[in-house]
Task: inverse folding
């Protein structure tokens, strides 16, 4: 086998220059096509990064708030036992502010000066006093949120150039005072606790997410309480018990189709059925949860059926052979094995529901609500709707608040999806 | 076959072999290293194949001559398909597959950059175990290769190639009236002949066949075997088969693989009647596999 | 006692009945000679008793909760306001809310308390609490009676397990019927209001009218206050944005699916595929924000640089971001279709001497085409049903244009803007939202069904 006699190719086609030329062209086309693919993938990943970075860059500021340190004298002549709730706390703040700049005397300038502190400061003082009336008569050094336009000024110099953007919001005088205060170390960026503890507000520096977070919590609680049992039960019936006939086919078509119906149509359903027909109140997490569970159930059913299908028949046969009834087999043997898959599907469905906005707008969860809801029947909004509302606000400072809220929402979603992925990894190959 | 006793088994094979020899299918000039005038189309030298950690082919050297049918037999998992798939580098698409050694096609190393894999695969056609026509019309299935390589430049030329290839595999009369119907609608045997026609359309030098009849019934198998015999006059053919009868019926030379080793290669008649190696004997007499 | 405490009480009591029935079955067992003489295990007797308590109780509670408010209000209103015009939604809603506020808080802001209103509020309060008492009593009584009768009938031969299993099966069947109820609910809720809309505005005007300006209808004293409800500009706006979205999503989604399925090494694939799918998990309101506050201003500036006048709420900005949202949808569905193709046809093509890209373009892609078309139909359906992006980034004014640089509005935007705020269900402006909802539902239904049909048919081919 060592000797080798070479033969020329029988098809001379391959040796022609034309073929070699064409081959080069084909090779180039091959390379080009591959690069199109790489380009597409990179473009997709670029979009992901751009989305996250643009929001993150805008949003981190929301967790920090520019605050001003003022020495407040709780003047006993202003506050007494009788008027703890109605005393003129705003005056105390103003006086503290004026004492910083004794040279300011004109009424107009004084008003400009007092506007630099947030309008919510009086409520803060009121809360302090009502919680501990003994502080009346003392002087305390306290930190107050600064008005949102100065917050923006401090954070990214926005509005310093008065012919740009925030024109007219900040006067020359205010700018001067502000810089003085900064030099004195009276102005500082501090962690924005209020962002997590307060309800919504028209004032960006006072607005918090607590109301929306609680609203989302109650809404998701209702969604979970309804969609999980119903979804699992339906998946069990369709996969384990249902006969194969026209009717179950019809149910299946319905489920597949519902999973693709636009969410806004579910909003119409919620409005017409739950609010108009059953007379349930508007803007409450209960109705929101009902609508979202109708949207989540198909997802859970589809995932649940896949999980049940993955349980090998030998387990059912084994249980049946031991004399268990069909129902016993399913409930005691099959469902526990399929549970991780079902839970994974549920988490994904709930994550979708958590980010859902459109249907909730139509059942009135878009109202401006300051109070933090205490239960599923209190009017409230939810996190994504809060994002929508804030994104619509003209104040520049809400841009940052909105991005911050998005970061929180995404953090929840990512956490949920990571849990789902871990569960899937851990339980995927058991047989 | 498996149930028969050893002796009857051996006798049967020998009877068949005798038949084929009398039909003149085994060339007299055939034999290991016996005749230098025989031209080699492809030679493999010291070929090793690894799949990740597995050593699938161990130092195999084997040649394919012009106008012969070489059959490769052996128990399943012995590497016969792997070896075949190296000959047109279709194994390249298997992730983690690594080849060492030298495989020459007409004096050019196919794994060097000298020969483009496109040209290699056009010149070394392949027919697969399971019939795999494209989900296109019968016509387009056959015209696929020639169009790719611009071997045809007009509708007339394409027609000519398609019809002659169909005629060559004996499919023309069966499908003439539905040449624009999908190739996947044909029966299994017809599909496999369509795949052979598709390979012929590119005018290859060598045709590799990977158990081409394993998914077919005996009648379809017989047709394919007749076809292989006819094609031998124009092409070199390497056929992997798990059926020793088939190897005996269609091939001039036979190679026996076991666990990645080439155990024995020689004239088909010689290998089946007078195997040199104990392993070969065990296999063909049914003691193994 | 509120509805929630009642639900908790029902659950607590059903566990009490579980133990009662279980104990009774055990006692029966001792009289007949051991547990094994019972037809079923004791826990099944308990289970049946618990189910028989909870299920009727919950059913009654559900029915009661859904109708009692309406009945009470109807009684109060007919009693105290006999001259009330029931046709007028506004009057009824206003009176209802006044009575409810009065009953809850005892005072009304900005309105002097009329005697009639006060009396009505008292009556309302009385009837509501009466209804609550009756509800609690009937819910608990019915469950208790049914369950108690069962417990009385417990004997060694009573087939508790089959009964329990039948009850469970009924619950399971009921759960799977929810999908059908939802569909029926959607159809009915949009259909009825849409029909009342078409009573006011002719169907042909809605379907073929070229102008949409529903806001005119607000002032009822206005002459010819019917507004203009020609939906063509909405459909063209929707299609325009969807078209922009598909121009972004189809090439990027399809090419990345092809790359990941055919070229990428397992490592790249296992990283890039989930990375792209992150886009699918991002809530639409986030995309809306991104479109309105990041992409739109940038596009506007970018256009101005080249002397192009790109509206701040252009179809382009909304469409591009919607396209980004749809990329993972297109890519993962196409990826499924492409990877489902048997490897053998790829090998066949390569063995003919085709390059990889030739194999993809001439064999893989044509073979996967039906599935890909199905995926694209689903993506289009997703695009025309998408609400938040267009609500935040597209305009409100309906404009009949094919220029993506201009501002257009869409069906979903109109549905939301017509329904957010005060709704009057006798006003064509509100009803129009349901007519639009109906068209949207039908359009997406047709697209989804076609897509599912194609995909199913396709997947059967390679089974």
Result:
């Amino acid at each position: 086998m060592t000797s080798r006699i070479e033969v020329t190719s029988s098809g001379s086609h391959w040796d022609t220059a034309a073929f070699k030329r064409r081959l080069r062209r084909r090779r180039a086309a091959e390379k080009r096509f591959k690069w199109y693919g790489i380009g597409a993938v990179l473009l997709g990943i670029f979009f992901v990064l751009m989305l996250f970075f643009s929001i993150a860059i805008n949003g981190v500021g929301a967790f920090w708030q520019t605050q001003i340190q003022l020495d407040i004298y709780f003047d006993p002549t202003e506050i007494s036992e009788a008027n703890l709730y109605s005393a003129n706390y705003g005056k105390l703040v103003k006086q503290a502010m004026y004492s910083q700049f004794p040279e300011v005397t004109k009424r107009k300038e004084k008003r400009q000066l007092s506007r630099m502190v947030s309008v919510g400061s009086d409520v803060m003082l009121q809360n302090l006093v009502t919680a501990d009336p003994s502080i009346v008569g003392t002087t305390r050094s306290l930190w107050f949120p600064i008005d949102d336009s100065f917050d923006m000024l401090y954070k990214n110099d926005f509005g310093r150039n008065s012919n740009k953007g925030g024109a007219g919001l900040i006067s020359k005088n205010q700018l001067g005072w502000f810089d003085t205060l900064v030099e004195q170390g009276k102005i500082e960026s501090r962690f924005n606790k209020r962002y997590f503890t307060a309800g919504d507000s028209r004032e960006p520096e006072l607005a918090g997410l607590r109301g929306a977070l609680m609203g989302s919590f109650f809404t998701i609680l209702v969604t979970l309480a309804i969609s999980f049992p119903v979804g699992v039960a339906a998946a069990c019936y369709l996969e384990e018990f249902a006969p194969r006939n026209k009717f179950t086919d019809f149910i299946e078509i319905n489920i597949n189709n519902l999973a693709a119906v636009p969410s806004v149509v579910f909003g119409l359903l919620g409005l017409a059925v739950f609010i108009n027909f059953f007379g349930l109140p508007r803007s409450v997490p209960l109705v929101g949860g009902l609508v979202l569970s109708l949207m989540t159930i198909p997802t859970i059913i589809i995932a649940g059926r896949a999980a049940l299908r993955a349980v090998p028949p030998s387990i059912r046969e084994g249980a049946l052979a031991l004399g268990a009834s069909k129902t016993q087999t399913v409930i005691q043997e099959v469902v526990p094995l399929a549970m991780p898959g079902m839970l994974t599907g549920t988490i994904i469905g709930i994550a979708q529901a958590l980010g859902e906005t459109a249907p909730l707008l139509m059942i009135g969860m878009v109202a401006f609500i300051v109070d933090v809801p205490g239960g599923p029947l209190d009017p409230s909004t939810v996190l994504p709707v809060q994002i929508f509302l804030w994104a619509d606000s003209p104040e520049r400072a809400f841009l940052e608040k909105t991005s911050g809220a998005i970061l929180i929402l995404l953090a929840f979603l990512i956490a949920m999806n990571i849990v789902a992925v871990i569960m899937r990894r851990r339980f995927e190959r058991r047989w | 076959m498996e149930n028969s006793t050893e002796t009857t088994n051996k006798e049967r094979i020998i009877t068949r072999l005798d038949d084929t020899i009398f039909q003149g299918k085994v060339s007299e000039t055939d034999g290991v290293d016996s005749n230098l005038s025989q031209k080699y189309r492809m030679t493999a030298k010291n070929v090793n194949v690894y799949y990740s950690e597995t050593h699938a082919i161990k130092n195999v050297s084997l040649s394919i001559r012009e106008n012969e049918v070489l059959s490769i037999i052996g128990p399943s998992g012995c590497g016969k398909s792997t070896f075949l798939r190296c000959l047109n580098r279709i194994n390249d698409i298997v992730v983690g597959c690594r080849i060492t050694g030298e495989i020459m096609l007409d004096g050019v190393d196919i794994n060097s950059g000298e020969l483009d894999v496109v040209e290699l695969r056009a010149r070394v056609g392949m027919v697969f175990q399971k019939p795999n026509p494209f989900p296109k019309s019968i016509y387009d299935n056959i015209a696929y290769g020639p169009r790719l390589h611009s071997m045809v430049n007009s509708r007339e030329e394409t027609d000519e190639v398609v019809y002659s290839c169909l005629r060559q595999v004996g499919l023309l009369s069966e499908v003439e009236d539905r040449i624009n119907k999908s190739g996947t609608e044909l029966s299994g045997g017809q599909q496999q002949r369509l795949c052979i026609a598709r390979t012929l359309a590119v005018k290859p030098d060598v045709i590799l066949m990977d158990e081409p009849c394993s998914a077919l019934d005996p009648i379809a198998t017989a047709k394919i075997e007749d076809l292989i015999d006819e094609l031998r006059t124009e092409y070199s053919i390497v056929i992997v088969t798990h059926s020793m009868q088939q190897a005996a019926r269609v091939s001039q030379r036979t190679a026996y693989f076991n666990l990645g080793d080439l155990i024995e290669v020689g004239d088909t008649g010689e290998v089946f009647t007078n195997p040199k190696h104990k392993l070969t004997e065990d296999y063909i007499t049914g003691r193994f596999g | 006692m509120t509805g929630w405490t009642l639900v908790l009480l029902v659950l607590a009591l059903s566990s009490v009945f579980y133990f009662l029935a279980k104990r009774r079955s055990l006692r029966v067992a001792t009289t007949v000679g051991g547990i094994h003489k019972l037809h079923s295990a004791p826990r099944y007797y308990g289970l049946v008793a618990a189910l028989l308590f909870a299920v009727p109780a919950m059913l009654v509670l559900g029915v009661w909760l859904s109708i009692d408010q309406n009945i009470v209000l109807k009684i109060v209103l007919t009693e105290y306001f006999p001259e009330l015009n029931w046709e007028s939604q506004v009057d009824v809603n206003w009176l209802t809310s006044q009575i409810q506020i009065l009953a809850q808080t005892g005072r009304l802001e900005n309105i002097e308390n009329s005697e009639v209103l006060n009396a009505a509020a008292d009556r309302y309060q009385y009837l509501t609490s009466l209804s609550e008492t009756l509800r609690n009593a009937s819910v608990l009584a019915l469950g208790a009676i049914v369950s108690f009768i069962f417990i009385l009938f417990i004997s060694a031969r009573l087939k508790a397990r089959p009964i329990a299993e039948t009850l469970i099966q009924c619950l399971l069947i009921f759960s799977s019927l929810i999908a059908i109820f939802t569909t029926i609910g959607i159809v009915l809720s949009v259909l009825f209001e849409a029909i009342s809309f078409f009573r006011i505005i002719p169907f042909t005007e809605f379907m073929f009218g070229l102008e949409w300006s529903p806001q005119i209808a607000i002032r009822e004293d206005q002459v010819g206050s019917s507004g203009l409800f020609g939906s063509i500009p909405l459909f063209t706006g929707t299609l325009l944005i969807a078209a922009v979205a598909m121009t972004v999503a189809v090439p990027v989604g399809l090419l990345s699916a092809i790359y990941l399925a055919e070229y990428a090494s397992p490592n790249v694939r296992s990283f890039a595929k989930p990375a792209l799918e992150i886009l699918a998990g991002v809530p639409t309101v986030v995309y809306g924000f991104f479109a309105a506050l990041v992409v739109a201003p940038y596009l506007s500036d970018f256009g101005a640089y080249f002397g192009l006048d790109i509206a701040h709420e252009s179809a382009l900005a909304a469409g591009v971001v919607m396209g980004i949202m749809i990329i993972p949808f297109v890519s993962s569905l196409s990826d499924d279709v492409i990877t489902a193709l048997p490897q053998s046809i790829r090998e066949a093509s390569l063995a003919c001497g085709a390059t990889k890209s030739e194999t993809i373009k001439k064999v893989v892609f044509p073979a996967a085409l039906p599935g890909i078309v199905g995926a694209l139909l689903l993506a289009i359906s997703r695009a025309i049903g998408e609400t938040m992006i267009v609500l935040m980034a597209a305009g409100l004014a309906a404009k009949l244009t094919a220029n993506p640089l201009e501002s257009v509005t869409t069906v979903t935007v109109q549905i939301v803007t017509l329904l957010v705020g005060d709704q009057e269900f006798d006003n064509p402006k509100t009803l129009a939202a349901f007519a639009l909802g109906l068209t949207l539902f039908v359009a997406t239904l047709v697209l989804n069904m076609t897509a599912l049909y194609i995909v199913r048919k396709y997947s059967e081919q390679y089974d």
